[in-house]
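Need tokens for this chain, all 122 residues.
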Amino acid sequence: QVQLVESGGGLVQAGDSLRLSCAASGLTFTNYNMGWFRQAPGKEREFVAVISKDGVGRSLAESVKGRFTISRDNAKNTVYLQMTSLKPEDTAVYYCAAGLLFSLVKRPYDYWGQGTQVTVSS
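Here are the structure tokens for all 122 residues:
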């Protein structure tokens, strides 16, 4: 079956960096656009970043532009989220998702990981 497994979360201080990874299995990775979303306590899950199947197309939420970068390694079936200059408001559970559509909203995504916690202290 399809599995998306996130890793790389943790507790960091404001201004620090983290790189999240999402390893995919059970699907043809190059058929899927890959997205990152996050959900803070008491809030809706929100879009963070998306990358197209071939890695050429990318889009980032305004709140993370200039600080986060999304990339993928199709040989390793893995998508990454490089996060720099982290802020306390970036604290959330981060989820990766796979979808046949290039989308900035949750609904079109077919598969989701279990999430990894990122906590940024001030």
